[in-house]
Design a protein that fits this description.
The complex is a heterodimer of chains A (181) and B (119). Chain A is built from six helices and no strands. Chain A is mostly helical and 181 residues long. Chain A is elongated. By secondary structure, chain B is mainly alpha-helical. In chain B, 76% of the residues lie in helices and 0% in strands. Chain B has helices at residues 8-11, 23-48, 50-61, 64-86, 94-118. Classes of the chains: A mainly alpha (181), B mainly alpha (119). The interface between A and B is medium-sized, with 33 and 36 residues.
Chain lengths: 181, 119
């Protein structure tokens, strides 16, 4: 039974309703976190695209901007990790059960499992990027190539994470829609 | 007189070779490569050893994913610092390090996704 149906149940005791109200608050919290997590991810991708552009046009005057862009990207990826990790640990169990019983079990078995582990690589890569970008790039073509390659990897993997998140959401949606009304 | 045969190792960390990368870049790049492959291997090992390794990882922090993340980040930092101290990887060229970083990321992601595809 869905939580909304329980609220419509007139035979519910006050204690039960309080418990349900708390659960509803938790659900709202879960939804808010679910919006913040991909939003931070998108901001991290945008910051890394900014870093990529600065590296492609490396010049002494742009160096502080490259440092700012790579540092922002790293901080935003860490925030994405912390917020997404909190949601995963606290709220994901219910969605996981739904997905596994729904028509898209691969949304958990393949997509979520891959996403949560590939994200750890993305986290390290985004943390490593400011280390590479810290020194002046305009006189160091080798370092510039490395920054461009890492930034491109972070952007592509980040976009993959966003897409994977969409598939997981669809896994929950198809599971809910497949339930008889 | 400029020594045209000077290698990055001979030039040292303060060398003027434009392709010479900093020590931190080289050592943490190598550390990333090793850590990413360790992560991929750990994914496979913990999933096929649910009763031992996965159970231990769950018990260590309350969730296997948290333990995995802590181990991964700790290994990245420790290996990076150890490589710097031991001078490992200082002779790598920028192009080779780029290939190693990109290749290890691609291979590790492929192992993880491929494993869950067949597991």
């Amino acid at each position: 039974m869905h939580i909304a149906d329980l609220f419509l149940d007139t035979s519910a005791e006050p204690g039960q309703l309080k418990c349900l109200a708390l659960r509803k608050e938790e659900e709202a919290m879960s939804e808010v976190i679910l919006m913040i997590h991909p939003a931070l991810g998108v901001l991290a991708i945008l910051a890394t695209v900014w870093a990529l552009v600065e590296a492609l046009n490396a010049a002494p005057v742009r160096h502080w901007r490259l440092r700012a862009a790579t540092l922002s990207g790293a901080v935003l990826i860490w925030l994405t990790y912390v917020v997404g990790g909190y949601w995963y640990l606290v709220f994901y169990a219910a969605d996981k059960a739904l997905i596994k019983k729904g028509p898209w079990p691969f949304a958990h078995n393949l997509v979520m499992e891959s996403k949560e582990h590939v994200f750890l690589l993305l986290l390290l890569l985004a943390t490593y990027l400011p280390v590479v970008a810290w020194r002046n790039l305009e006189q160091r073509p080798g370092a510039r190539t490395l920054v461009i390659a890492i930034a491109a990897l972070v952007v592509l993997t980040g976009l993959g994470m966003e897409g994977a998140g969409a598939v997981i959401s669809m896994g929950v949606k198809t599971a809910l829609l497949s339930k008889p009304v | 007189m400029t020594n045209l045969n000077a290698t990055p190792a001979r030039l040292g960390s303060a060398g003027t070779d434009p392709d010479r990368l900093g020590d931190a870049t080289l050592c943490f790049g190598l550390s990333f490569a090793v850590t990413s492959l360790f992560d991929a291997l750990l994914v496979v090992l913990k999933e096929i050893n649910e009763d031992s390794l996965l159970a231990w990882m769950k018990a260590a922090t309350g969730h296997h994913w948290v333990t995995h993340g802590v181990m991964s980040f700790a290994l990245f930092v420790i290996l990076g610092l150890a490589f710097q101290r031991l001078g490992i990887g200082r002779t790598l060229s920028a192009n080779l390090l780029t290939a190693i970083v990109v290749g290890s990321m691609g291979l590790s992601a492929l192992i993880m996704v491929g494993f869950y595809l067949v597991y």
